[in-house]
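Ticket #4471: structure export looks truncated?
Reporter: QA, pipeline team
Priority: medium

Steps to reproduce: submit the single chain below to the structure queue and open the exported record.
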Amino acid sequence: MNLCRYLFLFFSFISIIFSQPENRFSPFDWVQYRQAGKVNSISFSERYAYLGTELGGLQRFNILSNRFEESITRAQGLKSNTIKAVHRASNGVLWVATPMGIEYSLSEEGDWRFISRDILQLPFGAVIYRIGESEQDIWLETSTLVYRLDPITGVVTGVMSNPDVSVLWSSGLISFQTDLSSLLFDYSILDGWLTDFRSLFSPNGKQMKVTTIAKNRMNDVWLGTEDGTFFIGDNTMKTFSPYIFSLANNDIQDIEGKYPFWIGGRLSEYTSGVSYFDSDRNIYDQYIFNENINMDRLSIYSIINLKDEIWFGGEDAILVYNIKKDFWRTYNINIGTDKSWINSFINIDDQIWLATNNGLIILNKDDKSQLDNELVDYFYNNSIYELKMTNDHIFIASEAGLFIFDKQINKIYDLKSFGYKSKDFIFPSDHFNYTAITENNDNLYFANQSGIISFNLINRQWSNVVEPSIYGSLEVKSIVLNKENIFIATVNGLTQYDMINNSLEIFNYKFIGDINDMYIKGKKIWLGTSEGLISFQYK
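Actual output as written to the record:
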């Protein structure tokens, strides 16, 4: 075996070690849902169409069931969620090109082997935009050269200006405007889409460029576009049907609902908006800023579902979506002199209470006007992280501490003056900066850097739940519970702590990013993170 092959096997071994979070996980125990970005490449197997996207990894569309399945992303071990090219070879090996190099999987799911740009000897700035195969080799095409690879080891066996054999290529990114008239003249495009035979137009009138064109073995035409939408051509019915598997942004700040979810996040350099997400029913509705009347471009930090309306809390404003009328409206909110954002909402009768980084705001539910209240003055210029309403009490987690407002007698309490304490209860050493609240059965849980405590709603007794050493005494972003398991999101990732068996696990994989919100449903925990929406099957 020559030196090149030895080196390749060594680097392949290293890549296998880091190919998935841990070997004890199945390939899709962790799943990352992201904004797709443009479709760069399409390839086919007997079961799947694989779509390489700019932001959302490798999407898998099941041709047999006509639905999406879990995407392949960094959660499955890929080095990047930017897929420049994809090719499913005839021997069953799945190949992808990212800005970092080439990766391939024998299982078409996990255990990704990585070959870096340096090993491939790609020139600086060279991009692989097509992958194909001949009878004996795998081929990579860049803007200037093609590279021939051994199909088993991935070792480069030749570099040339053009292939010296016939190559079957999967589709690549179109680098120039294409005349689509020969493809679309005899076809109708469904769901309100139109074409001028050079580009496509969405139902709201936005012009959309076609970014890649592919044909499967049945000679059906597939079109990928710049926003992640792709179209399947039906040769019999002469129609193109649109599909999309994409969130409206990747930096997720809030998850609202018991599933399906409303999802909002921070603005980015890409097109942004809010999402309605239900993977079980294959619903991925996007509401893009500036493409809907009265829907201003805002970073979204909080969401509340009021049945007829959905409220989205942003910076110095709220977006309100009327579900029945399918109508958006933006309301500016006077929160403070500095830039302010809304961390949390609660609904109290005909009022909506807003927790902001500059204090408390109370709005009339119908006309959205601001209301005066003694509590507004009490918390002026203090950061309020979260609000929780139970019966006649409102729990307020803030930088000044944990407070409880009794609506019946119009009185506010601090932690030390409310409820009952057992003899073994110890107040957290830091009485300030309570940043997270969650409810489980008859208990409320409150977290700061000095510990997690609980309040029983039946006997009104406080208890110590989690010592701060369990999560490194770090700032807590979010907490959720399922029976004996408490999940704690900090700046260091996700801590899962079994309160009965006193055991813990820490998950701080890079693909998770910063966790901003969490929700548990069944055997899965859903994470709203800076890297997208992530599900983890923890049971």
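Status: closed, not a bug. The export was complete when the record was re-opened. Leaving a note from the reviewer for reference: The chain is about 5% helix and 45% strand.
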